Amino acid sequence: MKILVLNPNTSDMVTEKIKQAVLKVAAQDVDVVVEKIEHGPEVLESYYDEALATPYTIKKVKEANEKGFDAVIIAAFCDPGIEALKEISDIPVYGTEECAFSAALLLGNKFSILTEKKHKESVKLQHVRKLGLESRCSGVRALGMGVVEIGEDEQKVKQRGIELSRRMIEEDNAEVIIMGCASMAGYSQELEKTLGVPILDPVTVTYKMVEGLTALGVKHSKIGLFAKPAEQKWI
Amino acid sequence: MKILVLNPNTSDMVTEKIKQAVLKVAAQDVDVVVEKIEHGPEVLESYYDEALATPYTIKKVKEANEKGFDAVIIAAFCDPGIEALKEISDIPVYGTEECAFSAALLLGNKFSILTEKKHKESVKLQHVRKLGLESRCSGVRALGMGVVEIGEDEQKVKQRGIELSRRMIEEDNAEVIIMGCASMAGYSQELEKTLGVPILDPVTVTYKMVEGLTALGVKHSKIGLFAKPAEQKWI
Amino acid sequence: MKILVLNPNTSDMVTEKIKQAVLKVAAQDVDVVVEKIEHGPEVLESYYDEALATPYTIKKVKEANEKGFDAVIIAAFCDPGIEALKEISDIPVYGTEECAFSAALLLGNKFSILTEKKHKESVKLQHVRKLGLESRCSGVRALGMGVVEIGEDEQKVKQRGIELSRRMIEEDNAEVIIMGCASMAGYSQELEKTLGVPILDPVTVTYKMVEGLTALGVKHSKIGLFAKPAEQKWI
Amino acid sequence: MKILVLNPNTSDMVTEKIKQAVLKVAAQDVDVVVEKIEHGPEVLESYYDEALATPYTIKKVKEANEKGFDAVIIAAFCDPGIEALKEISDIPVYGTEECAFSAALLLGNKFSILTEKKHKESVKLQHVRKLGLESRCSGVRALGMGVVEIGEDEQKVKQRGIELSRRMIEEDNAEVIIMGCASMAGYSQELEKTLGVPILDPVTVTYKMVEGLTALGVKHSKIGLFAKPAEQKWI
Amino acid sequence: MKILVLNPNTSDMVTEKIKQAVLKVAAQDVDVVVEKIEHGPEVLESYYDEALATPYTIKKVKEANEKGFDAVIIAAFCDPGIEALKEISDIPVYGTEECAFSAALLLGNKFSILTEKKHKESVKLQHVRKLGLESRCSGVRALGMGVVEIGEDEQKVKQRGIELSRRMIEEDNAEVIIMGCASMAGYSQELEKTLGVPILDPVTVTYKMVEGLTALGVKHSKIGLFAKPAEQKWI
Amino acid sequence: MKILVLNPNTSDMVTEKIKQAVLKVAAQDVDVVVEKIEHGPEVLESYYDEALATPYTIKKVKEANEKGFDAVIIAAFCDPGIEALKEISDIPVYGTEECAFSAALLLGNKFSILTEKKHKESVKLQHVRKLGLESRCSGVRALGMGVVEIGEDEQKVKQRGIELSRRMIEEDNAEVIIMGCASMAGYSQELEKTLGVPILDPVTVTYKMVEGLTALGVKHSKIGLFAKPAEQKWI
Known about the structure:
Six copies of one chain form a homohexamer. Chain A is α/β, with parallel strands linked by helices. Chain A folds into two domains: 2-95 and 205-215, 3-Layer(aba) Sandwich (Rossmann fold); 98-201, Rossmann fold, CATH 3.40.50. Chain A contains nine helices and eight strands. Chain A has helices at residues 12-25, 47-66, 82-87, 96-104, 118-130, 147-152, 154-172, 188-195, 202-215; strands at residues 2-7, 31-36, 71-74, 93-95, 111-115, 137-142, 176-179, 199-200. In chain A, the strands form two sheets. Chain A has a four-stranded parallel beta sheet with strand order 2-1-3-4, with helices on both faces. A four-stranded parallel beta sheet of chain A has the order 6-5-7-8, sandwiched between helices. The longest helix of chain A has 20 residues, at 47-66. Chain A is globular, with a radius of gyration of 17 Å. The N and C termini of chain A lie far apart (39 Å). Chains in contact: A-B, A-C, A-E, A-F, B-C, B-D, B-F, C-D, C-E, D-E, D-F, E-F. Chains A and F meet through helix 4 and helix 9 of A and helix 4 and helix 9 of F.
């Protein structure tokens, strides 16, 4: 089995974090490749960044289909271009946001999302609504930090993360917390010990779910939302 | 007042249909420009098509900001890249899908959407859910025709449109019907007469709402979902 | 085109505020008439007030149909008797609440409503639910002032409005704020500057949307929720 | 204990049906008065009819407060003016629609509503949404008959009622059926035998629930949705 | 008429509280039996406790069917095993939670639930969601006390209950408060006086609703959610 | 890693089917034990059956905690007693229904459930609502066969399954179909080929997801819905 974990931005730091997290948990008989896209923004902090990165992500997913991969994971907690990627792919494509939500549903009544900056709270709420999961989400709270800063200032992330998580638990009735940024990868275990609730790291959670589902031959549906695109004339 | 009506695909036929529809209804003192994007697929029939067209749409919206336009309308009934476009724009950007929904809410208990091909039913249902309007939508029914065919075979569209609309009204409790494809522009009036319910043409409905809202100086919010993107490093 | 903006209460102060607000924004070729009902409560602060005012509003809407108006706007942010008015009218009737909601949907992820007194919070929440828009509304907060006081004590409204709006933005994730009372008409621009988010004045927003939709000949559906009432025997 | 069962229309036939139904089931120690309003439409088939009848219903409810009644039931399956009536009343006021819904929730997964004419399907769906009960309602189907005809042509009601109920059960997953018109009072038992599912007669179900709740001294809340109206100046 | 009020735990204190509450309000011509199950946990504070108690509750409900009871009330505010009990019973079975919710819907826009310990907040939110009533519930707040302590320390319950209820009213927009624990039976009247909103005691509210519905012969549906179980082989 | 796959009924046939399905897909380094409960109904076709089986399931889950298992899967597509089992377990417990839903969310816009008998349609709809997934479920359709018959009459299941699945796809907009009965295990691949959409077999899908999540050390939250039960006195 061959799985591509694709970082849909161009940050080496984030790609490295993803790589370390995934390789630590991958089954031995799986051929895991962790890559980033060739061109695009260093990190994705807006729909705009995502829009510009998606054509390069599409290219990578097309190649993964040709190169015999069995599944692709898009490893940024915003699932950029996920519908387009599923459309043009015969092999399954999974986002770390949707997978983290699917896992969280199994672990408690409601989950909350720790995100980067204030405006991302609205973005996450929209994603949750798009996925039809509003009544299982207890809200979103922002660290007030950018993606790069999160990847670099571990101390600040942990301190604010604990503070915000406590409010999510006590005020919002969260039972599960999702680390909503790929650059937080690797912080979840320590927070979990401190807080006593599951803290999900979307990258590894997604990786292991996908490893399992792909072993079964599970694929996404190609008859509706993700139907194969028709050929278009192009100018 | 200067409004850009932007066709986010490269079809001359569709652009022309939009132009005729809009110019017929525009107020005299408004400077309306109808354009298509420079490069991209001829029509948008998938998220994939949209993903590839969006960078070119972004370019046009950025230019519209620089050229002194007061508002931009994205004239394809899938609102491609709409969040990204609102993020990078200081002037208001509106999609014809979201505007048609907002108008339909005022005209009856539930609206149904006439779409192109079967798989688009799922796409539209997802859009409705993303916008939080599920309890006002009575469903989607597909003509089983592509965008180009719809623009060309008027007779077939009308016949099937009437047939499907009758089922929407009788079986689904639709009270308002939205012509869910820009290439249907111009067919709504005749259907309206035959069926006796409002048949909304998203392009003109959007245009007139935007003309009004822009005259008031209404703009979209820039603090949450559509916050201005931060500068990113780019590789 | 001839539009009736109908104040469904008998306050001269409120009618005058509406008149000034509308005339400032109306297109030159539109014949706008701003009127109040002949009898009824000075202001509408309860369903009870609305119930007593509605027969007089009906009378006015019937007359507007006979007098050749093209559309009617009910200019109180509670849309009193709106379903009955749409039923008995062949020309379109719009409420300022429903129209403000429809506009707010286009401008941000969630909107909040600034209302008069505490108990109105429940009333607004019920309206939002009736219209199926719960997942787009970030809540309601009350000034703790009556309609008349709001119309008269501009300073207090502004100060409290800013304070409450800040809480809506920071605590409730509101991105758009609706001034939920016709007597607040005229306060929105200043608040908008201070707060940096769209502050919608329902009367003018509704007026411009209606001006546009009516120019297109858009009418409400008469087959379901707003079907023409059958003649009844009367005792 | 003294309960007023108020028919908010002026039909003697319907009032008589209500009276017979209620008196058959009332506890012996309760003083039940069944009355109709003094002026108004013979039956209520639209929001318009309701709007005209409500001021007369208000009058009756005010009198009931003064005359020492302990509770009022509004016995038309559209709960006309119910919010206004609860506002101006210190004694509890109940509608037969809301009470039938509350009872139906206890008896099966989903309930369906048998209504009069096609357009009423939309009206009922709106009511269900206003009350927040959409996920418990399996739909509405119309007899295609007016209120008076329903009260008079028992045979036709039963035949069509059985036919429609079978479709509600088999196609819509209804487990409970509500006879959605006061003039159907008295038909439920026979249908229940034929169909093998609970067929709720809103008038009697409401009456017995109210008898019970009133004996306990239960009253509606007066702090939010139904707060006491402030005095208004009147012109 | 003969009604069994069944305490699905083995606490004599709670059973006695239920008995006193019910006997005070029962109609004279009703034969009310208040009993507890024969074996099981003293109180039910978890799904685990409920799971162990349910087989004994089933036994009692089966016996009630044989002994000629007309209805059974399960008098613990968690409705333990309620679906199973309705399945195996021909006579109606009602839970005090579901009935309290049904009553609360009639009394205000939203209801809140006062519960025992913090973790029960999630449990109640899940129940509300299961019953499809999320948009009518303004939340749950916990006393931080166990069932037995609640039954014994009246002073503490009242003090904390008042404090929490005030927050429910002011912060959560609750209009009705449900005393969510059978051992709180008897505290509601005093709180109601202090707080000025309806405080529902589920046991008595349920009892009177059931008394009324049973007098009418209302039964639950046996075709779907509560269909009679097929015989099974048993090992 | 040691996983217990627990059949919460006493059917050898079903246990054997589960065993074959799971062993075929288990990773080599996992110690999988497939067992049934010691006493209880042969199959679970009602909440009543589940209620009687749950105490025996609890016993097994407690033992699994003591015997050093790392996770438990409850392998009946009704997740019987799942909340109680999660409460009393420190190791994670997963149901095949909830896991199949979580997987289905990743594969298409909406999923439908193929169930046994007609009345189970309501049961499944309630489960979906309890889990907050209503807007992602396109409905339930029943084979009209019991659990045992489904396990035995492969031909009939396939034929009816194909027929019903076609209706789910065409009429209900299903994109993914869940084989909603453990005794259907093994039928999914053939249906998948015929129908061209993902047909999920809950047992194997759950097994592989759990294998992955457990390898990561993911556990359910113990602070809210699944908090550890307090000790109770027992009579």
